[in-house]
Amino acid sequence: MKYYVVRMKFLTPVHFGTAENKKGGSLQAFNCCADTFFSALVTEAAGLDEALCGEFINAVEQGSLVFSDLLPYYSGEEEELYVPVPLNRREKINPLDLQLSFKELCLQYEAVREHESAAYIRAGGVKAYLAPFGGAQGSPKREFGWNGVQRRMDFRVGSRAYYVNNYTFALGAGLYFIAALADDALLESLVKTVELLGLGGIGGRRSSGFGKFAVVGGPQLLSEASSGDAGVLHAMLNDKQSRWQMALSVLCPAPGQIADVKAGAYGLVKRSGFIYNAAEQSWQKRSSVYMLRAGSCFPKRVAGQLLKFAAEGAQHGVYRCGKALYMGLPV
User: Scanning 18, 52, 92, 157, which has its CA 20 to 30 A from the CA of 136?
Assistant: First the structure.
């Protein structure tokens, strides 16, 4: 498999519908899972070419095309690529120094709590984070943007105001995804479809202009020659011998893979959405499913499965991608 990094610079605020998952504080306002991205991608591809849409679906089903979640990056003095915080190590943090003054102890406690609640960590800092009692001081928090609220008017029934939560990325910040490809022949079509997807936007409230983005610099092939966080990512993505393999995307295990999942450390995330009913010309809520979220760790790479739903009124197949991309943890 070859691994490509594709960076997305957002031109407008984003609105991703993960409110039910943010209540636990484990996800960020800009969190966009791989299944959401895959659904948007194949919908865009279907509008271009039904055959291309079928190619994407078949490639994912066969495991020759795998996506990560959309993950944050920051371009400053150097390119910073972030990955989910591993779920197999939440307790090994720097112990509090009880010899400090009360004020200093409070500040240290707040730093530890902030460290514990972090959702993402820089790829180059993963090894230090996994070291016993390591990580908090070596991983400064990065602000990728800010939350906001915008007022909108609904003129369908009178004039009713409503408010929409959104997230605006800071200058230099955005989201990227990793695409694992067994065949480079699909790369050009993939990038072109992603570029077209950026014109219409991704996520919710696209009719209000949310979620529009541009692809930055084209796809970057990760190789041994890559430096910085990209080089670290290349090494971990190809490390299949590590005793802990961390998922970089949501995972829906097949029945025969449950034993491997139970041997790991994971968190659940609710995945729900809507489907357009052509007969009634309305949007209907489709069945929800719980998946294992990015950052879950297992002793081996659990492939997962591509789910297909039957939706009333839908004139096409309804898919949810539960196949995960992995990297080996340096432990």
Answer: 18
